Amino acid sequence: MKIRMIREPIILFETIAMICRYYRKESYTAAAERLTGLFGNGMRSSQISELRINGEMAEQLMNNICSDINLEDEDIKFFFKPFDTGNDAERNCVARVLVFSMLILEPLSFDDAIEQIRNGWAEVKRDGLEILHFHMHGINFVSANGRERSSLFEQIYAMDYPYQAKMDSFLALDRHELYLSKLADIVRPYARRLEAARSRFMPTYASSANFWELCFDIMTNDQIVALMRLKEEANLTNLNKAYVSLFLFNEIGNSFDALTSTSPEDITTLYIGMGIYPEYTVVLAEQRMDRICEELKAVSDPVRLELLTRLSKESDYCLNLAQSMNMNAGNVSRCLTLLHEKGLLIKTKKGGRHYFKTDTEAINRIAASLVALVND
Fold first, then answer.
1. What angle do CA 301, 305, 306 make, to 5 degrees?
2. pTM listed for this prediction
């Protein structure tokens, strides 16, 4: 599955995630050690080392940048205190409801991202909304498209969620412009500090994005569904991009298209915390090696390799290829079928004939996967 990786930090997103972690006093290094304990037997020493380094870097950055935050300040508590749901793993808070519910993941500046959220919420208020549920990244909702809906208060009040969390969320959403501006003023100094330190964590972003791009390229729909802990029947046809976050660390989430979605089939974006990847490295490593071996086996035959070479220049059909190569058409047909099944040929129908063309992107991916596997 081809998924575009966002390789630039979205500073607003990262700053909110960082301060949420700081408020909860969560240790990245402890999380890294837990993951190492869980998956250490299946991880290479280089992976264990990288995981610990990433955890230490995230924790040092967080502590250095957030050291002057007063956790007893009433505004800080209002925006960043996790909702009391009785679940120790609760991630939601007013800041996330305000920001993550509307943020479209693109590498915008802090102020541009705030403006994007402000404009998005103005559009939502104009069209009306139907709240579906609270989740770890704010709220899920769909556009009412002008249809008559219950009031915002009635919808939030009807949610199966703690009373105080609902009231704080309603207060913030009902006066979204005011509370978003107030949150932006609180967060902006820490966003500037994080922006100033970005060169320190950019290599980590890049390496994690490269890793996940290769993983997604070999994962089936079922494997990604399992990764996201969705219902088995989920069909991720609209999933097209992913964002690797330093400060989510050992979390994974997903985004619905806020204005049209009603189901997991409409998931468009993955949010991936860097620390989770050892779990899936272990699960996918053998599958990745098996797939590369199968692909290399497919191109190792001299006839199939010549077909790929010829068809990289121009498309052609079986009988013409057999005549030009002075070969039996049945043998050429079997080679073309195998190469197409392995994803190395693109097949199109013209005038009653099937034409084949080498998928050069697939060839490049095999080469990149082999290099990455050997280097890893």
1. 120
2. 0.72
